Amino acid sequence: MNIQFDKRDPIYLQVIRYFKQEIAVAHLKPGQEIPSRRELANQLSINPNTAQKAYKEMETIGLIYTEGNMPSKITENTALLKNIRTELIDEATNNFITAITPIKVPLEEIVDLVKKKYLENENDKEDTND
Amino acid sequence: MNIQFDKRDPIYLQVIRYFKQEIAVAHLKPGQEIPSRRELANQLSINPNTAQKAYKEMETIGLIYTEGNMPSKITENTALLKNIRTELIDEATNNFITAITPIKVPLEEIVDLVKKKYLENENDKEDTND
Amino acid sequence: MNIQFDKRDPIYLQVIRYFKQEIAVAHLKPGQEIPSRRELANQLSINPNTAQKAYKEMETIGLIYTEGNMPSKITENTALLKNIRTELIDEATNNFITAITPIKVPLEEIVDLVKKKYLENENDKEDTND
Amino acid sequence: MNIQFDKRDPIYLQVIRYFKQEIAVAHLKPGQEIPSRRELANQLSINPNTAQKAYKEMETIGLIYTEGNMPSKITENTALLKNIRTELIDEATNNFITAITPIKVPLEEIVDLVKKKYLENENDKEDTND
DNA sequence: GTGGTCTAGACCACT
DNA sequence: GTGGTCTAGACCACG
Q: Which of D94, D104, D117 sits opposite C94 (nearest CB)?
């Protein structure tokens, strides 16, 4: 596991987003165990309190659950899990539209730009494949 | 002038973004006077200090300038002004791609979604036209 | 008459300093007439209020005097005039020492630097002589 | 820490100048932690907002940096740090020469005066040593 | 009127 | 604890 933190957003939110993404692409499956708070903090070199905050938030959302002293697990509420992908996509798209609309960019120009950056990004990833 | 503030971002940043957008769509032109700090604060119902902070930041960026105790003006550095539109668009697009990529959404689906939301948004605006 | 205004200091203070310098080098002599407030404002392209403020301040100091509707004149208090040169030099030197002392620069280095910059400045002036 | 504030300059600028001087004489070193805003405000008996303003300005200059909510630190850009001493000295000397030149004081007289005041100042400091 | 600074005190999010 | 933002209200110098 590895997260490229940027400093614009709080770390705990970036951790949550990471888990959501892993769920959206089915790298994390219902009932699957996730690292303990301490492990996570170690792996990501973040403050244990930050890890704790992320997990607590995810529990509140219902994304994960913890029974007794067992490792936390991804929820088995598959409906909720299925929504995550849509939720992430919608959120990203809404943010985008909200940001781009006031600048009055023609739809065509937007689509072209999105396509271009999307493909650039794909190529970058291929270049850094192992 | 009117800004719909959300509480996620600091007000002074939203003010700056607003000015950038107004510049990007050429509602604000090089050398044009902008409202005084007090005036802006009144119009937006924000504290004069918050307006001052936004203006000060815009000065350090080079977006506006102030001579003596005269009202501040939009910079006459047209190169800088021209970049603003591109900068805003790029930033929005990059944020979008960065957010959407890890979810592995096919390009086609993304484009469709963008088109759909864009048009929805357009219609909303028409509905509220006078 | 011509003053190169910088924006760090208030204009009216720069005007006063200019008059003091002209007195210090005896370009302005006791009893000599000086431009009216309006004339000064025109020549320097400054606000008449600013010229007025400078003159008023100079009157308070006793540097100039005005009788009735006559043009203002340089004071005939020669003792005061003689002090101006010393005053300007002392002020400049004190400011310099106050600024340079906390940085713990050896006297030798300071003297060398002053000499160097002084001579550079002399040459610049010669180059722009008419 | 102690700063003798004068009322001519804004407090926050005097704070910045103080930090620059401390850097110039190497009392503050690259990466070194500096007091929190609140602490500084307490020590100097100034408002926390004023301390904040000074620190924010130093950040934009690149003099200090802040990660997360950790105490701010002196930048590790040693090139920038090295320049500060030169910058301070040059600025002081330029101001001095600019002020003294129009009075047409012979170089010799200037040097003598600088020497005299420098030494006076040294003695003053010795007198107040513990 | 303008910009600029400052204080006092509060609140928030993050670690 | 930390940094960051915001409000309310005041004062000053400048033009």
A: D117
| Contact, C83 CB vs strand F, < 7 Å | no
Higher pLDDT, B56 or A130: B56
| Among candidates A99, A104, A107 on the partner chain, residue whose Cβ is nearest the Cβ of B115 | A107
Phi, psi of A33, rounded to the nearest 5 degrees: -75, 145
Question: Is the distance from CB of C115 to CB of D107 less than 8 angstroms?
Answer: yes
Q: Does pLDDT of B130 surpass 60?
A: no
Note the pLDDT tens digit of each residue in B107-125: 999 999 999 999 998 887 6
Note the CA–C1' distance, D59 to F14, in angstroms: 29
CATH entry, D11-127, from 3.40.50.150, 1.20.120.140, 1.20.1250.20, 1.10.10.10: 1.10.10.10
Whether C48 contacts C38, CB under 8 Å: yes
pTM greater than 0.85 (yes/no)? yes
Q: Half-sphere exposure (CA, 13 Å, Cβ side) for A100? A: 31
- Nucleotide with the nearest C1' to D5 CA: E6
Q: How far is CA D88 from the centre of its chain?
A: 8
